[in-house]
Structure formats: C-alpha cells, structure tokens
Amino acid sequence: MLNENMENNLSIELEESKYEKVKTIKILNYYLHSKYKPLLEAKRIVDSSYKKNHLHILFGFGLGYIANAMLEKISDTDRLLIIEPSVKLFEIAMENSGNSLVINDKRVEILLGTDTSLLGNKLNLYFQEYMGRFTIIQSPNYPKIYPEFFRDVLKISKEKLMMEVINNNTRQMFSLQWQENYISNLYTAFTAYNIEEIKGKLTCPIVIASGGPSLTKQLPLLKKLKNKALIICAGSTVNSLLKEDINPNLVVTVDGGTANYKHFEKINIDNIPLVYPLIVHKGIPSNHNGKQVVFNISDVTVLNKLTNELLSTELGIVQTGHSVANFCFNIALQITSGPICLIGQDLAYTNKQTHALGNQGFSIVDETKEKQRNMFYEEGYYGEDVLTDFIFLGMKSGFEYQINKFTESGNSRDIFNCTEGGLRIKGFNQIPFSEFFERYCKIDYSDEIASLLPDRENRVKWNDFYERLSDLKNEYNGVVDLASESLEVLKIVENNNYLFDQDSISKLDEFDLELRRILENEFIFYILRPVLFKLQHSHLEIEDESEEEMNERIYNKSLILYKGIKEASTQGIEWITKLLKKVEKHII
User: Is-above-0.85 flag for pTM?
Assistant: First the structure.
C-alpha cells in the first residue's frame, strides 16, 4: 500500500518524449508512458482494451494520455473509473490544461489514493449498473510501482463481481416469488406490530444466535440465558434451539424461497414472535398464529412509501444484508441500548461443517463441494486461516458496513463477536461467550422483555384497506390494456421489416407517456422491476451499428418491455384478487 512516507518521497521526473514533443514521466525508474510516442501508445492501449457498454477501470492516470484517448472512444452507455494511487502525481498531471475534459466529463469518475473501502463501495454501485460488465486497463508499469495496491484492486474487483453475480442470480430466481410473497403478506402485516413501534424500548443485552458450526458449543450456556438477555434467533437456527428446549424471544426470517419455508413447515413457534419483511415466503407468516413484527428493508426504498400508505403506518426500515443475521444485527441496534453479541456467526466452514448440529442444512464439506463453491481461506477468529466462500464474505461485509456506519454516526455501544470460531469480523470486539454472560447477563429482564410487544386492542380498518387494494388492481388493469395495445403496434412493425413508421412511433409515444404516469406508482414499478432490469441489459447497442440493426434492436427491446409488462401485470392482478378475497371477509 502507498503510505504517507512513500508519497512524500516519491521521485517524479518529467521528460520530453523523443518524437511527439509531449511530456512523459518516470517514477522510481519506471516510465509511465512511452519515451518515444506516448500519445500513440495511449491510442493503441485504448483500441485493444475498449469494450462497448462496459465499465472501464483504468489503473493509473499518469499524465492523462490514456484517459483522454478513452474519451474519444467511449459512448454514453460506458463509464470510465480512474484509480490514481498518488495524489502528488495527480496534482502534477492537473497542471496540463488538456486534462480538464477528463475531469469534467460526466462519464468519468476519479478515485485518488489507496482507500480500498471507498473503491469497494464504488464497485458495488457500478457492478449493479453494468451487471458485472467491466474491464481493467493497466497503465504501463503502475502494477510494478504499486504491486500490493494493484493486487488489492484485482481482489476487490473479483469479490464485488462475485457478489453481484450471486445477487443477480438470486434476483432473477426469486423475483416473481418475492412479489407474490409481498402481496400475500400484506394481509398478515396489516395487523402486525412493526419495528418503528418497538425502536429503543429495551435496555437489556441481546444475543443473536446464528446457525454456524460454532453454535453447538454455545448451546449449554445459551440455555441458562433465559430472561437475562433477549435472544434473537436468525432464521432456520430455530430448529437447533428448539431441539435443545431453548425458546428464543424473537425469530427473524427474511428469505422468500421455498427452502426457507421448509425450515418452518413442521415446527410450531406460535409462542415466539415472528419478525419479517414482506418479501419473506408467504407460508411462514400465514401459518404463524402468534405475534408478528414487520419492517421495510433499506434496498427497496422506492416501495417503502407506498407500503406505509397501504398499511396506514410507518413500518420502520431495517438495513438489508446477505444473510438473515445481518438483518438481526440491525434490529438489535434499533431496539436496545444495551450490549449486543453474536454467537454461531462463523461465516466459514469451521471443522469442514456447513452448520451447527441440529440444523436441517447440516453437512460435511468435501473436496467436490470446495471446488463447486469456489471456497478459499481467509483470516479466522483466532488469526488462523479458515475455509470460506464469497457468500460468507458478503455476509461479513454486511456486518462490517453496519458497525462502521453505527460508529461513524457517533454511537457507542458494547458490541461483541462471541462466536469463538469462523471468520474474524472487523470492528467487533472478541470475547468468549462465557465472559459476555458473566459481565452483562446478571439481571432478570423478564418484565422488560414481556413489555416489548404488549397485548393491544384490534384497531384494524379493513374497509379502507380494501379500497386501497381495489384502486391498485384498477391501475394494473390499465397497464395490461396499454401493453396489449403496444404489442399490436409492434406486430405491424415486425411485418414491415422492423421499420418504425410515423404512425407506429406516434402510437407508441402516446402509450409510453401514459405508462410513465402509471409507473409513478411505486408498487407497480416494483413488480415490473425485473422486466426493466432485463431490458436494461438485453439487446445492447453494438459498435458501428447499421440502421437496419438499430431498428431490429429497438423492436426487440420494445417486445421484451411490453410482453414483460403484460405478463407481470396480469400476474399481479391475480395475486391482488386473492388478497382482496381474504380482506373481503372482514368487511362490515
């Protein structure tokens, strides 16, 4: 990494290039551009590296020749992210007025210095936008001058790419199911408590129990914890706890998939409050007959406002993450001012085990599984190397992001990782679970815990809820009609060799205006989001596209759009109709 001493003592030499009469530069006896023709060299690098519809990561700004050559190549569908480790070198480059175009171009972003956390955050955003379409361009000799930082850049890029691939696969696999869950869960959510109601109500310690292999050794002590701390159970870990006759105080579940439902299908937890977002598998809340707590999640803010309107209340927001335990941690931060600890949070295959004993997902990792999941070794709880994978690494990043945000906001709290195994999570104090128990779990908090979700009178206004849902269904019907008319116009375009005549363009423009108005409804936008996501990354413009190719591309994108909109909206109408029938039973 580039430390302050190295930056201050950086030997920078400017020379005149031999043939092009522009400057070249040398650092630590390495030339960052050609001694002879730096401009020609920059053009050749760009010509061999440029990819349309991609994020281009340029490692090393130098005197700006490669970046300026990229400006002549990239289009509005491309982005250029420049990483320049040396602030001192960049200041010298800025003395060249020719670099002002790069600095002011909206398609360009520049990261100065070697802050890897900032780089990670930027890549998160860009990889979502470009769905992993990126290329790294190395300025000459930069990797030799900054070898450690360059390795970090490659490592972070790989990690963020893998996270985005996993996230995208999850989105595509479960998008329809999540939407069905959402609409169905409005029924139970309408009468549930919410996170906003219980925020800051506790002073007691909270123990978050997750299902990693290390949980097994903590179960005997966890059993003695009753009423001396509030126990939050992360998802399917409830099976391991119930087998040991441990009843947690809250069970949090977030996954919308059928596999998650299977974990809850054969157990009765009506005596334990269920905490969930509306995308959780619909069968879990509908089969739970006890107290429930709902919340909005941070990464669907476009929907949260409408959710609050539909349910006539502010649900509160929980920070999302790669695992249910990330959600649990944010909930704990919100509801108590007391100390918090994690147990069973291995984020690794401790002792080659996937889960704690008693968890339905328990299995032993063999060599085949290691290769299938691209497992690797990272720093462990005790400084040793432990086996993990990119999914676990995403969960670890979620904890570290939350605790950094929490402390940056000026908050102070005793927060511990008492897993005693697995990965080391930066920002968490590490003490044995027995020490946490002895230090913080001495008082009986049964009255405080019982007061978290007090019994209350039925205050539900089903008639108003029914009217709001009926209005939503009417909006969906309007979308289906618009999409059907647009598809009829596209049939004419297809029969005309993909040529959009003035009449077709006018009609589609008219439909688009109305569609934009309807899409201002966040709920409709949310259910159509997978269609819009697919559209964004399908049939991308190619280099040197002919007019015929452009017409066919626009036709294909329009077809994806309107077919997808019609199918998604028709499905939405079906789900809302089922919900209306349930609500109808409560109408007076």
Answer: no
